[in-house]
Automatic annotation (TrEMBL):
This is Ankyrin repeat protein. Transmembrane segments: none annotated. InterPro entries: NLR-like, Nucleoside_phosphorylase_sf. GO terms for molecular function: catalytic activity. Signal peptide: none annotated. One of its GO terms (biological process) is nucleoside metabolic process. SUPFAM superfamilies: Purine and uridine phosphorylases. Gene3D superfamilies: Nucleoside phosphorylase domain. It comes from Apodospora peruviana.
Length: 333
């Protein structure tokens, strides 16, 4: 990555990239092809492929749908020519190995419309009714067409060329070797070893400690070894809400509410979909259960960011120029 002075005007930046955590912003920054110097620490400016992008992160220690919405609003105010956005970071995977969703840690989940859902469902927004049922109040906007077309193009090329994500990660580690270093106390932006990727039956609670060495081996879900540690990509519904999910019973209740297409849970997307035309990309860092820990977070942030970069390569500059500005789209809605 090279560094140069900022472009002449904020109007030359057309893509907004939102990351909740510092590690998510770090991964995105490391994947820039060119970093642009600026006079503010609020955003990271740069070029990714043919696109000039602005990377924004939430205030330290402040998460959730409201914080994400505030960040997006400030971003569009500072960069009025932004057309589309990406929300890229980590999330909890909803793994169902026997039902076609054999999600592993480090894999990638992308929000994609399914039926009446736009790809993101807010699971904690429903209206209770008198007969003890719930009325759905969670229908959110779909991602912008320019990103859905790019996603379709990427999916069509994948069986022919494969994903670029592994190569992009290798390049990142080469340019920034510090990110490839990993210790037990400070995990790096690299795969953390299949032996540390353990999925347990929902009823089995974590035995305590930083890892699962004390957890019952008999309660571990047995899964076939993969031929490679390269991340796989899943497309479907992402569940979003203001509660950090770290209980398998709660996680499974969310799936029951949303449906089998639900692949991931996280805390920011629902605050953006109706206020910021974007696609959500999540690297899986845990299984949203009591066994949740931080070991896989940096690597999951890196895989998600690499997929985001690959996807932007399928967004034509001319089509993006013809796309309505995000601020205009919101004012007319």
């Amino acid at each position: 990555m090279t560094t140069c002075t900022a472009l002449e005007s904020p109007d030359l930046y057309t893509i907004g990239w939102i990351a909740a955590l510092p590690i998510e912003r770090a991964a995105a920054t490391a994947l820039l092809d060119e970093r642009h110097e600026s006079d503010t620490n609020s955003y990271t400016w740069g070029r990714m492929g043919k696109h000039n992008i602005v990377i924004a992160s939430l205030a330290a220690g402040v998460y959730g749908t409201t914080s994400a919405a505030t960040t997006a609003s400030s971003l569009l105010s500072s960069f009025p020519q932004i057309k589309i956005g990406l929300l890229v970071g980590i999330g909890g995977g909803i793994a169902r190995p026997d039902d076609g969703a054999d999600i592993r840690l480090g894999d990638i989940v992308v929000s994609q419309p399914v039926g009446a859902s736009g790809g993101v469902v807010q699971y904690d927004l429903a209206k209770a009714k008198s007969n003890n049922t719930r009325e759905r109040k969670d229908f959110l906007n779909r991602p912008p067409l320019v990103l859905l077309h790019a996603l379709a193009a990427l999916q069509a090329e994948q069986p022919i060329k494969g994903f670029k994500v592994p190569r992009l990660l290798e390049e990142m580690w080469k340019v920034y070797p510090l990110m490839a270093k990993s210790t037990k106390s400070v995990p790096g932006f690299v795969h953390q070893g299949s032996e540390n990727d353990r999925l347990f039956n929902p009823s089995h609670q974590h035995a305590g400690g930083r890892d699962c060495h004390g957890c019952d081996l008999k309660e571990e879900v047995q899964r076939d070894m993969r031929d490679s540690t390269d991340p796989e990509v899943f497309y479907g519904i992402i569940a979003s809400g203001n509660t950090l999910v770290k209980d398998a019973a709660v996680r499974d209740q969310i799936v029951e509410y949303i449906g089998e297409g639900c692949l991931c849970v996280e805390m920011e997307a629902a605050g953006l979909m109706n206020h910021f035309p974007c696609l959500v990309i999540r690297g899986i860092c845990d299984y949203a259960d009591s066994h949740k820990n931080d070991r896989w977070q940096s690597y999951a942030a890196a895989t998600a960011a690499a997929f985001g970069k690959e996807l932007l390569g399928y967004v034509p500059v001319k089509i993006l120029q013809e796309t309505r500005r995000a601020v205009d789209l919101l004012q007319s809605s």
